[in-house]
Specification:
7 helices; 9 strands; alpha/beta; single chain; Rossmann fold; globular; about 30% strand; seven-stranded mixed beta sheet; two-stranded antiparallel ribbon
Length: about 240
């Protein structure tokens, strides 16, 4: 699959989505405020903190520019973030080193505003690292993890079945698999023959049942700003699965 994410426009959109303040993302008083902060909420609302062992490792698949990886960091000893986009990984790695990353927020037409992304001061960075990789063909020596997090990734893979088949080896016995998906299946990303034949929820329950138990599910709205007067509002299905 060619990587459409290697553009400054999308890098800016994702840095804003992950690190923008509520006012930077959504200054409108009547906007959907409950949809803000999605990369943090996928960790804080889905993970069962009391079930994480000590010591523990976490894997953030499709980490983009890294916010969820940093949100996982207080609860585990090591976090590995993997994304297909080298520009996303480079930005996340710069943030991990303590840098602020400047980016452009589109206003309209060719007008932009320069903003700066940084990791919130309350989140550790020392135990987080990032690497470029393909979620369908990850390196074999990753090992297993107490927490595997994959937000809005499945319906952006050409062959999601490849990731599903790898998950039992990635999640340690008793470990947590955190998945979110807006169930947006598009031929631009996934050939139609690789789509679920019914609902994504039923498909995942069938595919994961031999190795995982569905422990929690919830609807998770999110909003992506395209420009000052245009937003994408979506609702992901969030779920937590326990490795049998």
């Amino acid at each position: 699959m060619s990587n459409i994410y290697e553009s400054q426009k999308l890098l800016g959109e994702y840095l804003l989505f992950h690190y923008g303040t509520p006012h930077e993302v959504l200054p409108w008083a009547h906007g959907p405020k409950e949809a803000l902060g999605f990369p943090a909420r996928t960790v804080l609302e889905l993970v069962d903190l009391f079930a994480i062992p000590d010591p523990a490792r976490a894997l953030d698949l499709g980490c983009a520019v890294g916010r969820s990886s940093f949100e996982l960091a207080p609860f585990v000893d090591e976090v590995i973030g993997i994304d297909f986009s080298q520009s996303f990984v480079d930005a996340a790695a710069a943030l991990q080193q303590g840098a602020s990353v400047n980016y452009e927020r589109l206003e309209e037409g060719t007008q932009t505003t320069t903003l700066s992304a940084h990791v919130p001061a309350n989140l550790p960075r020392e135990n987080v690292r990032f690497e470029q990789g393909d979620a369908m063909n990850m390196r074999e020596d990753l090992g297993s993890f107490a927490v595997v997090h994959a937000a809005n990734l499945l319906c952006r893979l050409t062959e999601p079945q490849k990731l599903i088949e790898r998950l039992p080896a990635l999640v340690a016995k008793g470990g947590q698999l955190l998945l979110t998906t807006p169930c947006t299946w598009l031929a631009d990303f996934t050939p139609p023959e690789n789509w679920p034949t019914g609902s994504t929820r039923d498909w995942l329950k069938e595919k994961l049942a031999p190795h995982f138990e569905l422990a929690h599910e919830q609807d998770m709205p999110f909003v992506i700003r395209e420009h000052a007067r245009k937003y994408q509002w979506s609702v992901a299905w969030g779920s937590r699965w326990i490795r049998r």
